[in-house]
Amino acid sequence: MNVLEVKALFLGTSDDKDYVPHLKGMFNGLPTFVVCEPIELLLQLELYCKKRGITRVVSTNTSILKRLLDKMGYDKSAPALSNYAGSLFTFGEGAAIEIVFIPPLRQLFTVTYGRFLAARYISKVCAPESWREATQFQWGLITAENFQDCLFQLSGAYAISIDIETLRQDLRIRCIGYCGVYVGPEGQITTRSYILPLDSSYSLACARAIHDLPAQKIFQNGKYDNSYLLRYNAEPRNWLWDTAHFMHSWYSELPKDLGFLNAFFLRKVVYWKDLAETNDLHEYYKYCAMDTWATANVWISQLLTAPDWARHNYSLEFPLVFPCLLAEMTGLKRDMQKLEEARNEINVKEEAELTSLRACLGLPGFNPNSPVQVKLLLVALGCKDITTTEEKDLAKARLRHPLNNLLLGKVLEIRGLRKLRSTYLRVESDAKQSGIHQGEGGSKEFKGRVLYSLNPHGTDTGRLASREHHFWCGLQIQNIPRGREVKQTLCADDGFALAECDLEQAESRDTAFISGDENLIRAVSGERDFHSVNASSFFGIPYELIYDDSTGKTKDKPLRDLSKRVNHGANYNMGANVLVDTMGLDKIWEAKRLLKLPYTEPKEIAEFLLSRFHKTYPRIRNAYYVGVTHEIGTTSRLVSRAYHHAPEDAGLGERDLVDKANSYISKGGWTRYCFGKPATNKSDLNAYVAHCPQSLNARTLNEAFLRVFYELALKHPKTFRLHAQIHDSILFSYAPGTKHPEHVKDCMEIPISIRDVSGTYRTFTVPAALKLGMKDKTTGQFKTAKYWSETE
DNA sequence: GAGCGAAGCGCC
DNA sequence: AAAGGGCGCTTCGCTC
After folding, report:
1. Is A482 helix (H, G, I), strand (E, B) or coil?
2. Band of the pLDDT at A330, cuts 50, 70, 90?
3. Distance CA A302, CA A187 (A)
4. Order of strands, edge to edge, in the sheet holding A449-450?
5. Would you say A289 and A178 are in contact if contact means Cβ atoms under 8 Å apart?
6. Any idea which nucleotide's C1' is nearest the CA of A571?
7. Which of A24, A181, A317, A396 has its CA 20 to 30 A from that of A652?
């Protein structure tokens, strides 16, 4: 036997047993033992390894994890394995044995990226030579005495990562951490971290001096830090890097928090966020320093190992942090009086409905928001086959009996009102009731404004995601209800009018040009009403009977609505039963009647409807879905083959423009790495066929958002305000009399050159429509919008 | 009483 | 067997 032979052990739990064979091939060819019996003590494990000459351990055993953490002086009773996946410890004589933790093996199947992560983590101990070792962690406190030294050292850094620690209570920055990255003459990389407690105006001056250094700055999810730094007038110069955005640009489907990035990119690390729960100030500073060290090292690893397409994605995505940050800090003014009125209106309505419903039922304590209680109600109404109580299920039950209709209608009405009040029209007293501490004393508003965050790394497709603001108040701005109830409380600032500009039917147009389906291209590009054209081609009824082009009026609304639903469903590969559910049985029977169909089963009707779509637009399924599956099957990636014309392209001749577009397209636009398996999993297929148009539209709007930022928001800060982006629209306000709205529209109408799945090139532009206000009902005069409810 | 996941629902 | 996609927030109801 070769005594130098390296041996490995998989130490799992009884839950892992069945999955162990699926780890095959991940151990770099090392002879590997397997133990799934309970081993509680480190000593037991040590003896087991010693006896067999094992020096590499891969484990899911939380008892051993806890022992290892105990040894580090950390006594949490139950560490979560999910946090420690990828953490690497050493133990045994001379710390010669390395052990890495991985998620429970079940995840090899339940999570699309399960295999990928397991293999990566296992390679930490079984193929360590494939990992670059991180820099040594060293850190110090910045004091008045050593500040000049620290500043001098940092001024020599190649790059500086920055991380702030905040107090949620009063939005105060407690300390700021820096990690200077230094490149030696031989190319060797070292780092040093510095912690600056922010406890005086002197220390703030120190922070400003460091932030003003020309070195490129690195953050992890830096819009958070920069929101606070802006409050302190201490924003950094030259913020070029963000590790969360880099991760999103590379593996958009994976987590992006620092704990995960740490485990993912660095070999010899232990998850430390649990340990950072400390009351010792010096320890607290040390963990802040570790954050900056991790951010810097993750960045180094990303820079050294990312493929070109991920870098290209990054160059598209990162610039968005600036318009997003501006929009987040701008927010929208809330009319507090309107808020109060809207609440009162809702309270009155809800009170009436609730009293009535409870009286009908004879149950004074009935809660329509309780799934348990509504389920019982369904049973009482003879609908025990319906087991969930969401709107579409209640819709089903309502059709069965007028009494059901009455009672469940009230349930839905009350739920709707409560949703409006609790989510969108919240005031201080609500927060006190539920123990939430938000804004100033519990309201959603921050100095009378609704804030929000807009996150370019928040979705798999490249859309922005939204949530409440970094200051722990505000709203998700992208799901404000459509009616006037909430939007009438949000308005432009004094001296401004509010406006919204939409890309019209963007995803349908994008789908048409991505698939290259000539019928669909004609339908979306023509002058005629898209849904009526669809109704006509789906069901063989003359267009003129459905829509009157001369008056712009719909003549057959039921049929047009039907084709709208079918288009929507089929576009995203919806199954027949789901279409039945989303349309509702009444609409299904209506379709049967309208089209004089012979079928008796709802599913058959839905199947017929869907088949009409695919008959009309055959390339959607036959070329596009097939192309997506094939591309992912062979490359694990989806590449956007579209080029957004740059403003300077206007000066190019036809020939040069085509060359430029083609060269861009052949390199690829936005690329998504795909862990799912569309060939065998319909959910994955649906996600990926939805990705392409959604992502292309997101890119178009993001590009427009950037242009609006540079051409309007930065140039006209006194007469223009950039508020938000809402998936296919941009919300802004402007001083009346300016030409800013038209300029926004110009920024949004970006010509796109695209290569379809079969290789044909085309160019098209999604039209944008301004919504500036509405006609006054009484005077008939056009009135520019002040409130969001008025932008029509 | 805190924490968490599920249910339900708002938007495109 | 059947399965639209992409998000985030509040409430409920359960566990610790």
Report:
1. coil
2. very high
3. 17
4. A449-450, A332-334, A490-491
5. no
6. C4
7. A317
